[in-house]
Amino acid sequence: MSSMLSGENITKRYGGLVALDDVSFEVEEGVICGLVGPNGAGKTTLLNILTGREEAKAGRVVFDGEGITGLPPDQICRRGLVKTNQIVRPFGNMTVTENIAVAAVWGDSEISNMAAATEKAEELVDFVGLEEFATAPAGRLTHTPNRRLELARALATNPQMLLLDEAAAGLTSEEIPPFLAIIRSIRDDLGVTLFWIEHVMEAVMDVADQVVVLNFGEIIAKGTPEEVTSDEDVQKAYLGGGVDA
Ligand code: ATP
After folding, report:
1. Rounded to the nearest whole angstrom, what is the distance from the C-alpha of residue 39 to the centroid of ligand 1?
2. Non-local CB neighbours of 73 within 8 Å, separated by 6+ positions
3. Which atom of ligand 1 is nearest to the CA of 15?
């Protein structure tokens, strides 16, 4: 299997604080990889560096065989490395389908008109299970359908790889299994590689093939969900928070 995304020796400092200390990892094509870690571990910082929102002091990011270090976020997105947002901000006055169609027009180079974009958006509405909200203004969606809309908008840009930023945050325990089914289907049916950054480990552990654990800016474990949850350093890092796998 070839590498889809890798970080090589990434270091980031904020003043005297080392937020990321020589972090290296690799996500293979076609996998679901989780990036987990307690509060302040450096997850958001790493995500921002991978997507061009912040600059690292040192290190390199390689996506699909090409260095993308220092490229601006829109160029990284157009190359197929796309991030979902933790805080979802759709165009409130536009319908759910229109919101997805706009993302398709902007991000999918094969789509050049609104009719094609709308057709793609309608398929994605079905894919993420938002049929009942298809013509509703996106501003009226509650938290859970909003999370699904965010997935659909990201998928509309035709990504090779999705970076999910706390994608399951705020979902109830009943809402998580159907959400995980969509995540699996993104990989299995659409062939998109996934890197899921999450504070709460439980959901990620259910679907991930590989997991990377960050703590105080360092990677303390990598492996299958079973391997990392039985790792002593991981258990210590999560002491108090609990490792639910
Ligand atoms: P959480 O799960 O709480 O979101 P995290 O793993 O995403 O945490 P980061 O937000 O990346 O962690 O923060 C890593 C460290 O860097 C923390 O100590 C944080 O206080 C610090 N930090 C993050 N952003 C900045 C900034 N802009 N300026 C100064 N320090 C920062």
Report:
1. 8
2. 51, 52, 53
3. 29
Which ligand 1 atom minimizes the distance to the CA of 20?
Answer: 14
Mutate to test the pocket of ligand 1, among 11, 36, 44, 51 (most ligand atoms within 8 A of CB): 44
What is residue 186's three-state secondary structure? helix
Residue pair 58/9 in contact (Cβ under 8 Å)? The answer is: yes
Ligand 1 pocket, 41 CB below 6 A? yes
Q: How far, in Å, CA of 231 to CA of 227, rounded?
A: 6
Could you tell me if the CB of 48 is within 6 A of ligand 1?
no
Predicted local distance difference test score (pLDDT) of residue 124: 98
- For the chain, 245 residues long, the average pLDDT of each consecutive 10-residue run is 93 96 97 94 94 95 96 93 84 95 89 94 98 96 92 95 91 92 96 91 90 95 94 82 47
Q: Closest Cα partner for 178 from 224, 127, 125?
A: 127
pLDDT of residue 135: 97
Return phi, psi of residue 90, to 5°: -75, 170
